[in-house]
Design brief:
alpha/beta; Rossmann fold; 8-stranded mixed beta sheet; two-stranded antiparallel ribbon; 8 helices
Length: about 240
């Protein structure tokens, strides 16, 4: 597994990469959630036989932390820097949680060079956070690890000025294969972000959308059903490689 930095202007974006591009199987670009660093994708990087790339957005992991620049367009520029550096062609994108919003924003502008999109438990909205969110996330501990071990408080504060963008009306523009992974365990400690109404919105706007339900998971599918998660990712990528 390779670990290196890609420059995006004055910033350094940390990247983890495993495998090599193949003409038979599409590469996969993994976009993590709000606080996730590239290291959170190590199970995918390690277990997929195909080429996988994961990045830490600005303010996360080992990447640079600017004082400003945390809106949708800024995060898309981080993706652009990585895609260009890795020379990704006809690749798939996976976006988990808020990463799903970044993945949607990217895919709607760049689908001509993509083979598929996996959205993991995220409504089609790049959300604006309320005034109490910085304190909430700053004090949050997940799996006994403080969120601030993965993401700087300065980045959380920067996200406060991000604008809301609703992609609902644009979903029908997606002409690439799309899979939606949804948690369906109502007893989960962290519930799914996908209501029945949002699920219907996706399937009506994208008739070909493949819905994959994770019955033992709430929102945190990558941790709660890791084996099934990786198996379904593998299956989706293989399907796109056979086209």
């Amino acid at each position: 597994m390779k670990s290196y930095f890609v420059h995006n202007g004055s910033m350094r974006i940390h990247v983890l990469e495993n495998g090599t591009p193949s003409s038979k199987t599409p590469s996969l670009l993994v976009i993590g959630g709000l606080w996730e660093s590239a290291e959170r994708a190590i199970p995918i990087l390690s277990e997929l036989a195909s080429h996988v790339v994961a990045l830490s957005f600005r303010g996360r992991g080992l990447s640079s932390t600017p004082t400003t620049g945390y809106d949708l367009s800024d995060h898309l520029s981080d993706i652009n820097a990585v895609v260009k550096h890795c020379q990704l062609q006809k690749y798939c994108v996976l976006g988990f949680s808020r990463g799903g919003a970044y993945a949607l924003g990217w895919s709607l502008k760049n689908q001509q060079n993509m083979s598929g999109l996996i959205i993991v438990d995220q409504p089609p909205v790049h959300m604006k956070y309320g005034s109490d969110y910085v304190e909430f996330w700053s004090n949050l501990v997940y799996l006994e690890v403080p969120i601030l071990n993965f993401m700087r408080r300065l980045a959380l504060e920067g996200l406060e000025s991000a604008h809301e963008v609703d992609f609902s009306s644009e979903l029908s523009q997606l002409q690439i294969p799309v899979a939606l992974f949804v948690g369906r365990n109502k007893e989960a400690k962290i519930p799914s972000n996908i209501s029945d109404e949002i699920l219907q919105l996706y399937t009506q706007a994208i008739p070909s959308c493949e819905v994959v339900k994770f019955l033992q998971s709430g929102h945190m599918i990558p941790d709660e059903e890791q084996q099934k998660y990786i198996a379904e990712i593998t299956s989706f990528i293989k399907k796109q490689g056979h086209k």
